[in-house]
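Bumping my old thread because nobody answered last time. Still need a sequence for this structure:
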């Protein structure tokens, strides 16, 4: 197994970091936003989320909350890949806007333990997955309808 680190792209979101932090730090609230027909196999609490996908049990839990700047997630028991995902929020001062602290620079970081075969199979796809997930979160945060099709993440 080798450690793989991937930094997702950074986006600027027209919301305060506290808004993004609040939305991502409660996993049960995230599930409520998913259409009912898509969440039948999903179970969530404020700290955990799990689902059965193509026969695999996948899940993650909140490992750490650093208010208004970072939420760290890690795998739950039974999830086949050992990983940590950090959602990072930084306040951006925009001098030409009267409410200068309303913007957030947002990005995701992934650390995973992957064996050689998984690294070859998933390495490049993980970068695309993080970037697409970042776009989805940004769209949802700004009130736009995100592309939630599985093909947008693969």
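Sorry it took so long. Here it is:
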């Amino acid at each position: 197994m080798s450690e793989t680190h991937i930094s997702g792209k950074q986006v600027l979101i027209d919301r305060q970091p506290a808004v993004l932090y609040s939305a991502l730090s409660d996993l049960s609230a995230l599930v409520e936003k998913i259409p009912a027909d898509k969440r039948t196999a999903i179970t969530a609490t404020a700290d955990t989320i799990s689902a059965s996908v193509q026969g695999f049990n996948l899940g993650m839990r909140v490992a750490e909350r650093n208010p208004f700047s970072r939420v760290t997630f890690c795998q739950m028991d039974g999830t086949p890949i050992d990983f940590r995902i950090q959602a990072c929020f930084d306040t951006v001062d925009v001098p030409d806007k009267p409410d200068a602290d309303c913007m957030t620079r947002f990005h995701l970081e992934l650390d995973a333990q992957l064996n050689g075969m998984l690294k070859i199979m998933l390495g490049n796809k993980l970068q695309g997955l993080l970037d697409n997930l970042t776009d989805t979160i940004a769209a949802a945060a700004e009130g736009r309808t995100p592309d939630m099709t599985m093909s947008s993440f693969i």
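The first helix runs from residue 17 to 25. Let me know if any region looks off to you.
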